[in-house]
Amino acid sequence: MFRSDIPTKISVNREKMISKHGGVGIKMNFACDIFEKLEQLSDDVKAWRDGNSTFTKEKEYYNYIFNLDIFIFELYSILEYFALDMGEILKLKKKLKNKTVEIEYFTDLHKALNLDPKIRQKVNVFERQSWFKYFHEMRNRITHRMPISLRALVYGKTIEFPFLPDDPLDPQSVSLKKLDPLTECKKWLEGVFKFIDDICVDLGRELFDTF
After folding, report:
1. Smallest Cα–Cα separation from 106: which of 197, 195, 12, 14?
2. Which pLDDT tens digit goes with each residue over 154-167?
3. pTM of structure
């Protein structure tokens, strides 16, 4: 497992990704596949108005929602798999009440007792980014079986659709920020890939070649 060459690209070399990132690379490839599907469906979920009725392509709309749900969940699972790999390779531990246990989740990384300070700082900075906070909350929404809803903005007789909710954990949230799903998904994808690459560079090729 080591650095891919694509921290800010969507098109990937599948074999190179897997060879450099191992099992995590397979998850990264899958996330790219789902993103490509969202790109294909994006134009079909735009809404239009005829009189008092608003229309969109129903089948394509639900297919888009389905793929958006999978994309968010699988993209976050890249971080979970990566943290688990790091935990096994580096023998990372955290304190839990009166005992020391192995880390299991991405959110455990900054709690690891024996994590290199440089890497801990990068993890902390990564988790504090506003896009990650939103992405993490969207993932929590899916985990807790709250359906994703794409909001519309209506101005008189005109309508703009679809947009992500401003607050992922509020079922009644408005969409005044006009967060386009495809734009946000690309931002999340690039952010996660860059984080994986940066940490792999810090840890070194020799360490991950043995896994």
Report:
1. 195
2. 777 778 889 999 99
3. 0.86
